[in-house]
Structures are given as structure tokens and as C-alpha cells.
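Quick one, T. Sequence first:
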Amino acid sequence: MSPIIRKLSIPEFTINAPVLVDVYIDAMNYDKAIRDTRIEVWRRNSQNPGFTAVAAVIDDQVVGIAYGFNGSPDHWWQHQLRRGLRQQGGPTEEEIHIIYDYFEVAEVHVQPGFQGHGIGRKMMHELLKDAASSHAILSTPEIDEEANHAFSLYRSLGFSDLLRDFRFDGDQRAFAVLITPLPLQHSL
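C-alpha cells:
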């Protein structure tokens, strides 16, 4: 079970968005009713500067997807970051620099039956290897004692806390916002 990790062109990503979103829905155990909306959001995201996407494929089946793009002051997500940093007493000078020079890891998902086998790690290395930003930032739902594959992966790649127990506008769940310098310093 050795996956092929490959970069997707923007046309490949947009054409295959339904299959890729299905991986996301399965991995996150979301209601399938969100499928069409997420497909459109993902297709719009592919137009962001610095957009990069990778897929993990085993026996012609997509089992993982990761994508991201350069952070931008115009993006909703960066507005949320700035709000969170203000709420915790910042942003500091260093945080100001970082939030204007980062690669946003928007999504990283592996089909449940394939999690815990290094696929996410391989996708993250491929996704971030050519990112021109000084840092990568991502968010992940808070889990008691960080006891899931996602947190284990992010910590092993050197991600540290930027915000904890943060609530994005429109979502009642608590999130951790994590950051790591680029290039990644942790090997496969």
C-alpha cells in the first residue's frame, strides 16, 4: 500500500473536485448535503495565488487530498487570524510579518481506512516543498489531548501553536491554528 503522491494542475483539481471533496467529507464525517457547496468553494480556491494541490492515489483510487495557497490580507481566513491574535493581546511584530507571508494549508484529508500510514506526511512534504512563503499555517479542530492522527502529523512536522480554542465566525467548534517555518525541517 504505497501511494503515489502527485501534484494536480488547476484544471485537474477543478475537474476532479467532486471526487476530492468526497475524500474530505468521508475523512471529516460530514453530511453529504454540503458536497455541492464545498465543490464550488474548492474550485474558487484554485484561483488563489500560489495555489498548489496534491493527491494520494492507490490503485487508481484517490485516498488523500491536500491543497493550499498564499495567504492574503483580502481573504476571510486572514481576517479571522488577525481577530484571533487581537483577542489574545497581539499581534506582535513577528506575528504581523508572518500573517503577511504565509502559505495557508487549506485542506489535508486522508480516507479513514488509510489514515495513520504516512500518507498525510508525504502529501504535506510535497505540498510545502516549493512554497515561497516563510511559514505555513493551518487550522484543525481541537481534540482532547490532541489525540488524533492530524495533531500527531502536524506536531511531527514542527507545527506549533499560533492560536488555541479559537472559534471562526460561523462555526461553533474550537480550532487550533498551527504554524511552522518553511521549508519543513522534519524528514519523511
